[in-house]
Every structure is written in C-alpha cells, then in structure tokens.
Automatic annotation (TrEMBL):
<dbReference type="Pfam" id="PF09347">
    <property type="entry name" value="DUF1989"/>
</dbReference>
<dbReference type="InterPro" id="IPR017791">
    <property type="entry name" value="UAAP2"/>
</dbReference>
<protein>
    <recommendedName>
        <fullName>DUF1989 domain-containing protein</fullName>
    </recommendedName>
</protein>
<dbReference type="InterPro" id="IPR018959">
    <property type="entry name" value="DUF1989"/>
</dbReference>
<feature type="region of interest" description="Disordered">
    <location>
        <begin position="1"/>
        <end position="35"/>
    </location>
</feature>
<feature type="compositionally biased region" description="Low complexity">
    <location>
        <begin position="1"/>
        <end position="14"/>
    </location>
</feature>
<feature type="domain" description="DUF1989">
    <location>
        <begin position="38"/>
        <end position="203"/>
    </location>
</feature>
Length: 239
C-alpha cells in the first residue's frame, strides 16, 4: 500500500524543507495545571488511567497529530490492537462510540466524546527509517514518534518488541479509491477535544508527534493538553 502526502495550508513558516528542526529535548517539563498537563511540542507523555476514569486530549493550537498506544496496566502483554479494533467496529476511523480493543479482543478504552469526528488507525508512527525512506537521508537526525515511544515506554519496562500499530488522534489519513493512503491537513482546530473512558486500568503512552515533513502537524508541531478526570465527572478532580 503506497502513501502520499498532501499539500500544507499552514500560514506559518514551512518547516517541511528544514533539515535541522528545533532540537528535541528529553522532557519532564510538562506544565501541570489544575485542569491537567500541557505536553510540549515533540514531547512524550504517559500515565495510568484507572477503570472508570476519563482521559481528555486537547488539540490546543489545532492541526497537531497525537500518536497513542494503550496497554493493560497490570499485564502489558495485553495491548491495543488495530486489527481487532477495526474489525469490531467495522471501520478504519475512530470517533465517539469507538471502542479500543486489545489483542485479546477485549475493550481497553471507549471514545465518549469527539469534537473532530475522525481519527486514524492506519498511518502508524513516524520513525527515522520511514522518514529517510519517504523524505530523504537528510531527515535521519530528526526526532520521531518511535523515539518518543521507546524513551517513554522504557520508564514502564517496555521495549521495541512492545511497540504495535498505534492510533493517531487528530491525524487525517484519507483512503483513495485505489487504496492509496494520504496524509493531509487535519480536520481539527484550536481547543478541540476528544475524551476516552478507561474500561479497565490502562497505561497510555503518547508521542506528541514531531513530524515536520508532511502536513499532519501543519509543518509546525505544537503543544497538546492531557487531562485525567476521576470517575463521576469534574467534581471528582483532574490530574
């Protein structure tokens, strides 16, 4: 299956041709607020979300892809499965009502609110290898989502063998009639949110995508918000 990239309409500086983007900083500089955590551009994030709690992902500035993996918090061999999820819901896009299924075909999380309407299950995570193949050897030094997943996953005892096909929240990957995948401008906008409910205790890994070679981040990665709310709603508190 081939992949093509769309044309950006970003009004900012086009960083797609920049062989030396701003350096990635291994971050624990998340900004914790009363309503959650701000995850900087290009950074990784992880947390356990307890059964019944909700996780809200906020696209703070718009057009920012958020790569995501989900594991059973007590047995990480049980993890998000794209094939099981697609089969269970009969479609390749995620939206309100979609259930993230495990490789044991059991529910991990459910999308309970979605202000965008469509999220990707096919595009995968960018890596140094895929960047080089698609965009040229000069991109080899650029930080990628696989780097984020490996670094953040290591904090929880996860390694490369634990990485599977991921979800791309807010990423717009249409499928053409000939089966070609596109990576085009996102459907989101500043402040739009999606909320997931944990159906069991889960470990969520996030890479706030650093990609600058295609329109998935408008060629300029930006911060996102992550808010975990206790079962029972806002009065239960957020973290």
């Amino acid at each position: 299956m081939s992949t093509h990239t769309g044309t950006a309409t970003s009004t900012g500086t086009d960083k797609g041709a920049d062989a030396h983007p701003a350096p990635y900083r291994r971050t624990r500089t998340h900004i914790d607020t009363d309503t959650g955590t701000v995850v900087p551009a290009r950074a990784a994030w992880s947390s356990v979300v307890r059964a019944g709690e909700t996780l809200t992902v906020t696209d703070l500035h718009g057009n920012q892809a958020v790569d995501c993996l989900v594991y059973d918090a007590h047995d990480t061999a049980v993890r998000y499965s794209a094939p099981d999820t697609v089969q269970a819901q009969g479609g390749i896009f995620l939206t309100a009502g979609s259930v993230l299924m495990s490789n044991e075909h059991t529910p991990l999380m459910t999308v309970v609110e979605d202000e965008v309407g469509r999220h990707d299950t096919l595009g995968g995570a960018c890596s140094k290898e895929s960047n080089t193949l698609r965009y040229g050897h000069h991109t080899w030094s650029q930080h990628a989502c696989v780097d984020n997943f490996l670094a953040e996953g290591a904090r929880h005892g996860l390694g490369k063998r634990d990485l599977v096909s991921n979800i791309n929240w807010y990423m717009n990957v249409p499928v053409e009639p000939d089966g070609t995948l596109g990576i085009v401008d996102g459907l989101s906008a500043p402040g739009r949110r999606l909320t997931l409910r944990a159906e069991r205790d889960v470990l969520v890994l996030v890479s706030n995508c650093p990609q600058v070679n295609n329109p998935c981040n408008g060629f300029e990665p930006t911060a996102v918000g992550m808010t975990i709310t206790a079962a029972g709603g806002p009065d239960g508190g957020a973290r």
